[in-house]
Amino acid sequence: xxxxxxxxxxxxxxxxxxxxxxxxxxxxxxxxxxxxxxxxxxxxxxxxxxxxxxxxxxxxxxxxxxxxxxxxxxxxxxxxxxxxxxxxxxxxxxxxxxxxxxxxxxxxxxxxxxxxxxxxxxxxxxxxxxxxxxxxxxxxxxxxxxxxxxxxxxxxxxxxxxxxxxxxxxxxxxxxxxxxxxxxxxxxxxxxxxxxxxxxxxxxxxxxxxxxxxxxxxxxxxxxxxxxxxxxxxxxxxxxxxxxxxxxxxxxxxxxxxxxxxxxxxxxxxxxxxxxxxxxxxxxxxxxxxxxxxxxxxxxxxxxxxxxxxxxxxxxxxxxxxxxxxxxxxxxxxxxxxxxxxxxxxxxxxxxxxxxxxxxxxxxxxxxxxxxxxxxxxxxxxxxxxxxxxxxxxxxxxxxxxxxxxxxxxxxxxxxxxxxxxxxxxxxxxxxxxxxxxxxxxxxxxxxxxxxxxxxxxxxxxxxxxxxxxxxxxx
Length: 475
Prior knowledge:
Immunoglobulin-like, 45% strand
């Protein structure tokens, strides 16, 4: 009888671990062991969380790596297991790396199973961790545009598995850590565990739409690379039942109207529906050879205009040509303009709008300044530390910045050139972190001389500027 109780107890433990064990199996004595290191320099990663999952991918337990980066799960029954190097700060102190699965897999779906047979030990279940990717942004209240604390920003992979999450700060900002460079969806949920917050409706991030998407199907995928932050992943949350108001914009002549906070980008998107009380700032930009002459409707004056949606609002923007040979409402050199007539975004009989493609649809991060490319510079990089260095770039306006190039390694008389991975950001001034390839990182230990040829591409709606800088030595 006592023997039968022990057998039943062993079977129950095995079931909890997600492993199938015959009723006559011996006591659980198997183990999974390994070492966690940093991919950049091979150094041990201590006090880092490693999770063990059963065959059904339900988590069984977690351990911390020791001072040499080693970990072990012992007392395992026969079966299949999955190991995740998660870096969960709720268990161990060390963070800063992207979550990964054995063997070097980026998500649970593609993880490699570790089989424990007849209580055997499985050593060398190791991982080399890459520097984490992050996603950041701001969550604001739709009605008053104030930052919202107490909101959980949750990142899911495209299979619907949650990867990581973070709470918004007092000003509504957040940053989600421990991410790998995979397409992700970001959901924003009012979460009492993050702090007191109202019953705001959950939303997913959607590009160029601060109102977001109610469902994952309407969300936009977000990707951030190792060692990089994908910023500007913003959303505005509204209370359930909050009244919705519509803003409609019309453009007469050749020009562009952007609407910060309202999703207006006209011509193109000339109307938007937002919660009552939303403040939308409209900014006019004239095409070359044209000038902005003023607003009609809910705006007045000759500059940027802030519209409060306390009801449905309509705004007109008028641009006039500065070329005396072109009639006031027609396109330069084009007579009547677009077929069918009418004003962009409206249904009136005012002269048609023709806006040059190179100036009317700025690329993401573009300034909307017509006709001129951004002026940019790239500074000398910092010293190499932990297999990475930083470089400061600066432009005279907001632009999409892409920094890349090559690194030359010289050991004795031998010189090797290694291509750098590009780093992308959208800003005016930005310090970009560039991770050295493993080959270059290893050369550091051999006291190699390093020099870099860096390039900067800065893109706005007006075009692309390329800047290069030769740096004699960065080590």
